[in-house]
Design goal:
By secondary structure, the protein is of the alpha+beta class. It has 4 helices and 4 strands; from the N terminus they run αβαββαβα. This is CUTA protein.
Length: about 140
Amino acid sequence: EVLTLLVLMYPLLRGLALHLHSAVTGSYIPGTHSIAFVNCLNEQIARDIARAIMDKKLAAYVNILPKSSALYFWKGELEESTEILLLVKTRTSKIGELSNYVRSIHPFEIPEIISVPIDQGNPQYLKWIEENVPRD
């Protein structure tokens, strides 16, 4: 029973240990922040979604990348289109809320909303993200 409890509590204990280590040493905890990718049909939709994300304080920074070509399967057919890509910098803890919100306002039936954790980076920039995206 004790072993089962320890195994179940390991992620929580590890997380607490990492946060304590970070607080004491001032080091960054890998994965605390993430970059989310959101595809958009055109620049106006991209700007509208980016502004909505910022208005809700779900990100500290959103890049709107210029038009790119895309190839993908949709309903069994190979499609080709152009799209605008948003790079959304935020707390990892906000990814679920961000994803839900973007799905609620995005015109695509199944919008691309994927994220990758930030492993390391400029400590001042990562702290700035934290200061500009409220905690849960």
